[in-house]
């Protein structure tokens, strides 16, 4: 049910004709209220796509009526013309649903450097506005797919209120967000400040720690809309927890569908001096191509884990560090541990790597995947 | 002629029996004087192999008689026992050539986390000491190969003095040095301080800007030995220039032999506010797996170049940036440039990517290669 699981939302997913394949390529999610609260986070890439520039301006107010999303074109690196296209898209939606463009966010995904076909966008917005439905969340999740093999949706229901969302993305996933578009809705009663704080915390712990290939996109967007339609005002903690659960669920679906991956890898760094240290070490490991190739080869290569950890700036004593693969400690307190043949990486897609820094009590997890022939194939043959 | 091109050096490369393959695996380079000057730079990885820890202590004095190098085992992450093995190796060499162990550097390359077979090392040092020869540089360069497909040597002769060197390395090449062992010799007359300054400048501009896969090794070592045997004292500038030429030549050979690469890529960043900015942008691009896959697919994907540049902290206006592939400006001052079909990446291994930041007068070049099926294959199947 994705973005229409919560009360107060209608959605649609339609074929506008942007994609040559004729598959659905335009989604619309509308908040019918009574509240129109929003929060959003965006890519920190210095090259920001036109829809990101547009939506940043729009969502800064904390008020939003709708999000329109297209696949089939990223509208990135398209200059002033591209920005005008994003604004025109918002205007089309505003006219169709009876609001003003400054309350409509726009998201785009697909090839960089190509202008959007505005005739198709115009047609798509018109069809989408006519088919908006309280059951339309699944169609919307379908329409934002690019190289995704499955739509990604998640829902958490808690004490009379609900958080639900959809995401697209498969590769180009990196810290500080990925090539992903995410729309999460809730019928909880929230202020814009509460929505913003909860979204920042939820993304910090989920999407920001999902690193498929270290490559950060120009279009990443996560938008939260709150309708207040449940009439329930949850505690900050309860809402943040539910939102984090939905975002975590979506993030794990993004990684599981990452281009060409054969293993899903969780890198846990424990007993770090600080959480930042734990994160630094985990990211260094998640970005090591040599480590990622070893996992593809089912090799619990702790030497490559250490070599990657050794490039971090974290505080630790190399002679005190331990490394485990799937619970088998293959490197213990700076020396050889259990034999690597005891580790089985073949039986499951899931790989757990735990690094004990013996430097404190902080910890962090980063999720990544292995580096495979199919990753190279998809990214050598598919332009983005 | 590699390390024996300069006067005052003898070398050997022999089969000690460390490698199961029976190929040469131990090299010895000895400075016969009259001067015994040295300088060295090492990996900045926090996990430093035993031979790095040993050699750092030895070369700090600026005086060195010999370097012994083995392939077939990295002696990394082997703890106190591994350090004792490196010291024992230096002692064997010292006894054989009539000096003290604190004047013998040790380098090792191969699998991490495995102790060296000291009986084979003992035998190898003995044979090498007996076969030391003023023509032995080629044999030494052969004996340090691991996944290298060719030995790497370079020589520059200038006004009566010579700089020559050898290197091993094929992949795991990254900033702040790579998995590489390099020994450079010269018969120029130099002080230790002059040798140190020249080596730091030469490596800063060459090996430090060679980034095959962003992965930094635990064993990287570059050692310069000066015999003074030519009797000529070159100017600092002339010596640094010749040394930089030899290091640059060796670095380009390392990249050309990088595991599985199909293209050699030079990333030039121009008109940066500072050299550090130029380097930051070039490194971000060199480490983008998406960009590297695109080059493998012969796709001049400037969108991926921009997305990678956009993750840097360099000063620039995204709307003023231009990107060229092999001289064809496909992105001009923040907007679409020439059609990408005008770029030919198929006819040559060499790819030039130039990014104009329009922010100043500084520039830097980083050399890398593409990401291919064969890179994944070699690094999934070969443990290191």
Automatic annotation (TrEMBL), chains A, B:
Per UniProt, the keywords (alphabetical) are: Acyltransferase, Amino-acid biosynthesis, Arginine biosynthesis, Autocatalytic cleavage, Cytoplasm, Multifunctional enzyme, Transferase
Q: What is its main location?
A: cytoplasm
Q: What is one process in the GO biological process aspect for this record?
A: ornithine biosynthetic process
- Locate the residues binding substrate: 146, 168, 179, 259, 379, 384
Q: What CDD domains does its record include?
A: OAT (cd02152)
Q: Which GO terms describe its cellular component?
A: cytoplasm
GO: which molecular function terms?
A: L-glutamate N-acetyltransferase activity; L-glutamate N-acetyltransferase activity, acting on acetyl-L-ornithine as donor
Marked site (Cleavage) residue numbers: 178-179
- TM ranges are none
Catalytic activity, reaction form: L-glutamate + acetyl-CoA = N-acetyl-L-glutamate + CoA + H(+); N(2)-acetyl-L-ornithine + L-glutamate = N-acetyl-L-glutamate + L-ornithine
User: Pathway, per Swiss-Prot/TrEMBL?
Assistant: Amino-acid biosynthesis; L-arginine biosynthesis; N(2)-acetyl-L-ornithine from L-glutamate: step 1/4; Amino-acid biosynthesis; L-arginine biosynthesis; L-ornithine and N-acetyl-L-glutamate from L-glutamate and N(2)-acetyl-L-ornithine (cyclic): step 1/1
Q: What is its EC number?
A: 2.3.1.35, 2.3.1.1
Q: Which Gene3D superfamilies match?
A: ArgJ beta chain, C-terminal domain, L-amino peptidase D-ALA esterase/amidase
Residues annotated as catalytic: 179 (nucleophile)
| Family according to the record | Belongs to the ArgJ family.
- Could you tell me what this protein does? Catalyzes two activities which are involved in the cyclic version of arginine biosynthesis: the synthesis of N-acetylglutamate from glutamate and acetyl-CoA as the acetyl donor, and of ornithine by transacetylation between N(2)-acetylornithine and glutamate.
Q: Which named protein is this? A: Arginine biosynthesis bifunctional protein ArgJ
What organism is listed for this UniProt entry?
Answer: Propioniciclava tarda
């Amino acid at each position: 049910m994705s973005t229409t699981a919560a009360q107060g939302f209608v959605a649609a997913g339609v074929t506008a004709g942007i994609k040559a394949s004729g598959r659905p390529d335009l989604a619309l999610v509308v908040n019918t209220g009574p509240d129109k609260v929003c929060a959003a986070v965006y890519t920190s890439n210095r090259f920001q796509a036109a829809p990101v520039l547009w939506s940043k301006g729009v969502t800064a107010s904390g008020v939003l009526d709708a999000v329109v999303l297209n696949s089939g074109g990223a509208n990135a690196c398209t200059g002033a013309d591209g920005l005008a296209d994003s604004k025109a898209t918002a205007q089309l939606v505003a006219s169709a649903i009876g609001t003003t463009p400054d309350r409509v966010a726009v998201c785009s995904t697909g090839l960089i450097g190509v202008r959007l076909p505005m005739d198709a966008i115009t047609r798509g917005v018109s069809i989408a506005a006519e088919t908006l439905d309280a059951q339309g969340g699944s169609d919307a999740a379908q329409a934002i797919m690019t190289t995704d093999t499955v739509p990604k949706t998640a829902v958490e229901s808690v004490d009379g209120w609900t958080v639900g969302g959809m995401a697209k993305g498969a590769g180009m996933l990196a810290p500080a967000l990925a090539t992903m578009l995410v729309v999460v809705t809730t019928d909880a009663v929230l202020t814009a400040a509460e929505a913003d704080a909860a979204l920042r915390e939820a993304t910090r712990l989920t999407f920001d720690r999902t690193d498929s290939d270290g490559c950060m996109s120009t279009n990443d967007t996560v938008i939260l809309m709150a309708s207040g339609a449940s009439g329930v005002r949850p505690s900050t903690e309860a809402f943040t927890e539910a939102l984090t659960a939905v975002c975590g669920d979506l993030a794990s679906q993004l990684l599981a569908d990452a281009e060409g991956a054969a293993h899903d890898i969780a890198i846990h760094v424990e007993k770090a001096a600080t959480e930042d240290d734990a994160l630094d070490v985990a990211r260094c490991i998640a970005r090591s191509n040599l480590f990622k190739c070893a996992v593809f080869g089912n090799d619990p290569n702790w030497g490559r884990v250490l070599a990657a950890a050794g490039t971090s700036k974290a505080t630790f004593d190399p002679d005190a560090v331990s490394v485990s693969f799937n619970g088998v400690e293959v490197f213990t307190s700076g020396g050889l541990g259990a034999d690597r043949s005891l580790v089985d990486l073949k039986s499951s897609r899931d790989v757990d790597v735990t690094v004990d820094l013996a430097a404190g009590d902080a910890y962090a997890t980063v999720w990544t995947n292995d580096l495979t022939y199919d990753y190279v194939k998809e990214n050598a043959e598919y332009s983005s």
